[in-house]
Amino acid sequence: MPDQPLSPQNASPVERAVMGGLGAGMIAVSLRRPGPAGLMFAATGALLLAGASMGRSVGARMVGIRRTPDDGIAVEKAVTIGLPPEDLYAFWRNFGNLPRFMNHLESVKVQSDGTRSHWVAKAPAGTHVQWDAEITEDQPGRRIAWRSVEGTPVPNEGHVDFRAAPTGRGTEVHVSLKYRPPGGSMGAAVARMLGEEPGVQIAEDLRRLKRLLEVGEEPTTEGQSSGRRNALKKAEAKMFDNGRTA
Amino acid sequence: MKAVVWEGINRVKVERVPDPEILQPTDAIVRVTATAICGSDLHLLDGYVPSMAHGDILGHEFMGEVVEVGSAVRKIKKGDRVIVPFPISCGKCWYCQRGQTSLCDNSNPNAKLAEALWGYSPAGIYGYSHITGGYAGGQAQFARTVFADDNLYKVPDGLTDDQVLFLTDVLPTGYMAAENCNIEQGDVVAVFGCGPVGQFAIRSAFLLGAGRVIAIDRFPERLDLARGAGAETINYEEEEVFERLKAMTGGRGPDSVMDAVGLEAHGTGVGGMADAVKQTTRVLETERPHALRSAIMACRKGGTVSVPGVYGGLGDKIPLGAFMNKGLTLKTGQTHVHRYLDVLTRHIERGEIDPTVIITHRLSLDEAPHAYKIFKHKHEHCIKCVLDPWADPKDHDPVKAGDIRANSAD
Ligand SMILES: [Zn+2]
Ligand SMILES: [Zn+2]
Fold first, then answer.
1. Which of A51, A198, B128, B382 is buried most, with the most CB atoms less than 10 Å from its CB?
2. What is the three-class DSSP state of B358?
3. ipTM value of the model?
4. Which chain B residues touch A222 with a CB distance below 8 Å?
5. What is the B71 CA–ligand 2 centroid distance (Å)?
6. Rounded to a whole number, what is the distance in Å from the CA of B51 to chain A's nearest CA?
7. For B329-368, b where at least 16 C-beta lie within 10 A, e where not — what string?
8. What residues contact residue B75 under an 8 Å CB cut-off, 6+ apart?
């Protein structure tokens, strides 16, 4: 069962209007074009129109965007790490550790009161996003929850649970996050395609956390020798080797 | 240094590339003294395993001498003579700690890519496409190895390169395939494919208690080698395999059957042709699972099908009806090489298994393109090629099938 209530509709009203218009347009075009091309237009148009009427965005569905009833985007990811819950809690609760495995974070500084923190994250095209967050729940060894304070550009809230995994496997780390990106789920879908969407980031962050704590380092092939000389061939390999970028 | 490089479907070349360097504190650099071409390299050569990129250095069966270690390497020292198991173990995750090292959670830098194709990511593998990490391989003069303390295996003194090289892959792979058959004393075991893995599977099945082993192939030299290990043989171009297996086992079928062929099986008839056509698209079907189909059909009721053969993507028309209604068990997996090294080394030292029997060709690294060709097409009765990265091809006398045994005696 998901940790948060989810809406069956994953498209925003604006998105529905755009999809509906596009779908109707494509069907209109298809009527004037016989043959396979026309058929393609008709089918795609019908798909978009159906999506619009049901409030389900095809694009968002394809990239797995999930919306909450109050128009946020929900992300849930989990990983199992071979350490006891207390250790994982302690590591995470020291927020200064977060940028060690969350690549998009530049820094997290806990303020003197102990519950407020200042977050600086890298955003697309070399820009930065900053916000303040407050801890809303703190159960040692089990759970940490936080929420961004008023006036944040990308309002977000979330929690992380540490649950003992069965048969000595360590700890299940469950992260649940809700955020409101500028541009609604369409914005999130585009961002996700570019590899900047939090769902993708968090999955990779959790993998990095596991590797950091279990092994002490992440494996890499960056800088190894190969028979690639020109930039095109290098880019081809880079396309596959994306585990560390994003 | 010189290295064997993948340059596209059916194109390998020997090129000058930069020497490898220590990139992480747990790395070690190995000066490669012997390397081999594996059957699964052919799937890479032919482009059936996705995510190969131009310029990738091939090779996952290699050994040599450690010439440099990273600052965090403790157990492995400069000067150690080591083999390099093909799957990379982090040594710390749940799988590695249980000896299932080919399922390591942490050693594949491109885990995301593997998860997209297979659901979850297995271990990283040297020289074996970018899905399994994009690590540079060992068909080269030097190789960077990672997590050195957990992976490199020190070779006991007194054993030659030829004797231990195949501990990196094909020997433990054949052994694990036999172990996966759940052999009970006296069982009848059938092995589809008598290439290097099949040869070691046959020998391992006997070591593990099989009463009879039936080996199936079409190349006389491979069948000869199988008979040399005590197997009975079927040439599938001359006989109908299923009927023959039934006749040889009193109508019961073999207790367990191995598919030591994998995704480029030489299928016969209409089905085989359909596979071949679909596979060339690399989309409709990425495999030619003819041997797997045959193994499932031939296995006795309640028996075990063991699959050491490599598969990459999607195969059509697997006989699930036969699989389910006969109550078969299917066991698969890339080899957990590390877990078998001690036991197999002892078998080698005691002379109970002789890994050198499969070597038919010894060539210089420069001759790798030729080696790939004869190995792929089984020209010159080729069963296994060993490459010497330091031999000068000019004064190198390539050893041919037949005179190899005489040469390896000294
Ligand atoms: Zn192999
Ligand atoms: Zn591991």
1. B128
2. helix
3. 0.89
4. 23
5. 20
6. 7
7. ebbebbbbbbbbbeebbebbeeeebebbbbbbbbbbbbbb
8. B149
In the sheet that holds B56-57, the strands lie side by side as B12-16, B2-6, B56-57
**Quick one: pLDDT at residue B389?**
97
B26 CA to middle of ligand 2, Å? 14
Strand, coil or helix: what is B106?
Answer: coil
As to burial, measured by CB atoms within 10 angstroms (0-12 exposed, 13-18 middle, 19+ buried), residue A145 is: middle
Mean residue pLDDT of chain B comes to 93
> Is B223:B217 a contact under the CB 8 Å cutoff?
yes
Residue B351 makes CB contacts below 8 A (sequence gap 6+) with none
Q: Identify residue B377 by its one-letter amino acid code.
A: H
For the record, the structure tokens of B347 come out as: 């078998």
Q: How confident is the model at residue B410 (pLDDT cuts 50, 70, 90)?
A: very low
| Residues A210, B106: C-beta atoms closer than 8 Å | yes
* Residues with a beta carbon under 5 angstroms from ion ligand 2: B 90, 93, 96, 104, 106
Angle formed at CA A37 by CA A31 and CA A41, multiple of 5 degrees: 60
Q: What are phi and psi of A74, to 5 degrees?
A: -105, 140
> What ligand has the least distance to the C-alpha of B151?
2
Question: Which residue reads 């199988």 in tokens?
Answer: B226
Distance between B145 CA and the closest CA of chain A, angstroms: 11
State the DSSP H helix or E strand holding residue B174, giving kind and residue range, or none if neither: helix B170-179
**Which residues of B, range 130-189, sit inside 8 Å of A by Cβ?**
130-131, 133-136, 144, 146-147
Q: Does residue B88 belong to the interface with chain A, where contact is any CB pair within 8 Å?
A: yes
Kindly report, residue by residue over B273-287, the tens digit of the pLDDT: 777 777 777 666 767
Q: E strands along B128-236, which residues? A: 142-145, 153-154, 188-192, 212-217, 232-235
User: Any chain B CB within 8 A of the CB of A217?
Assistant: yes
C-alpha–C-alpha distance, residues B113 and B186, integer Å:
44
Strands lying side by side in the sheet with B329-332? B232-235, B212-217, B188-192, B256-259, B304-307, B329-332
The lowest-confidence range among A117-126, B99-108, B156-165 is A117-126
B115 touches chain A (CB under 8 A): no
Residue that the structure tokens 């994003």 belong to:
A246
CB proximity A241 to B under 8 Å: yes
Neighbour count for residue B395 (Cβ, 10 Å): 7
Q: Using the Cα atoms of residue A125, residue A126, residue A131 and residue A136 in order, give the sign of their dihedral.
A: positive
Distance CA A221, CA B241 (A): 45
B94–A241 CB contact, under 8 Å: no
Contact A220/B at CB under 8 A: yes
Task: Determine whether the interchain pair B112/A242 forms a contact, defined as Cβ–Cβ distance below 8 Å.
Answer: yes
A28 touches chain B (CB under 8 A): no
Please, what sign has the CA dihedral across residues B256, B261, B262, B268?
negative
Dist. CA B17–CA A231, nearest whole Å: 16
B51 contact A CB<8A: yes
The span from the CA of A80 to the CA of B175, in Å, is 31
- The nearest alpha carbon in chain A to B23 belongs to A223
Q: Does A100 touch chain B (CB under 8 A)?
A: no
Q: What is the DSSP string of A78-147?
A: EEEESS-HHHHHHHHHSGGGHHHH-TTEEEEEE-TTSSEEEEEEEEGGGEEEEEEEEEEEEETTTEEEEE
Tens of pLDDT along B290-339?
899 999 999 999 999 999 999 988 888 899 999 999 999 999 999 999 99
